[in-house]
Design goal:
alpha+beta; five-stranded mixed beta sheet; 12 strands; Cytochrome P450; Cyt_P450_sf; Cyt_P450_B; Cyt_P450
Length: 411
Amino acid sequence: MRLPDPSAAHPALFDPLGAEFTRNPYPTYARLRALNAPYYFAPFDIWLFSRFADVQAAALNPLSLRSLDHRLSAEGIEADRRAQNWHDMPYHARFVQFSMLNSDGAGHQRLRRLVFGEFTPSQVERLKAGVEAYVSELFDAVGSEFDFINDLAVYVPGRVIGRFLGVPDTDCAQLRVWSEDIVQYFDIDRTDARKALAERTTKTFYDYLIDLSHERRKRPQDDLISRLLRRWDAGELSEDEYISTCMLILMAGHGSTIDAMGNGLTALLSHPDQLQRLRSDPTLMPTAIQEMFRYDAPLPFFHRLAAEDMQVNGWEIPKGTKIGLLYASANRDPEVFADADRFDIGRTPNRHLAFAAGPHFCLGNHLSRMNMEATFATLLSRFQSIALSAEPQFKPSLSLRGPKALPLRVG
């Protein structure tokens, strides 16, 4: 099947920075799925795939890539950078645009293999007791009214991924800010101010990691930075690959887990029957966390590029076409999930796409779920009553989904 005529796409159907979409994107996703075809979003020059079958097929297609640079001439690469408006961002280009996340094929597999063993369930399990103790300390410091996001959730993944990598505890809060300042330029709202912030922060982050690396060379520790430095010194990693991998792990370990915590608590509090069900049966916590990711995914969108003419679930995709994978929409597809708009903490099977699919399946999924399980188990054991003291306000974004704050009253 050929893609629809781009000029026929109704521009009002998809407004990812609009108030309605920011508050609740799922009616929009349902309208996109009802088209039974990809939707052309002109401001981003991208075809959006919203149905589960289409999104999964695109994510698994070996010709569906994150970058086409290895297939372009030098002139083509420069033209592409200008089109995406990061041609004059030298630090961002070196360490953010060319990371494991934005590589494919053998290069991606090589970088992924170097860190894969760090994220296995057995390795993550070693951190569990420390995470639970730290979460308990955070809850000790809150009163009967607090902001779940800014007083608690923002500290959990940063501290955990910081220790995992080898960052001093005192620096974790600053690293979260840097991560957010860099990641914000991946979204569609690319103003000059946001661009300058991303480039400036990437350089600051680079300088910090170089200084920390000098310290680790003098005094190696049992942490990922020390192990990656040995890989660098052995010639298995270049300097740029070493820095970009450290940055990616820190950035990926922060924002999405914070947003997942906020989305998950919002879902629980808006479904009191499921909250009570989880209280009554704590063994449901693992499936509840998976349902939180399905029901309101923290990373609802990623892009791919067609390396060659290809087919995606029957759709003919010309070479060079930019494809948008709407993971959050796919996770509410009624063709795959029974009563898809219902939040069900016991849902099984639950083969959602919140962690993506294929070669780019999220390495940190075990770590993220462990953080959430520790946080929600402690929250429910500490407080018999939990209520929002104000309606959650979500961040306007296509690439991210999460509340800015969640003020709570507990008792």
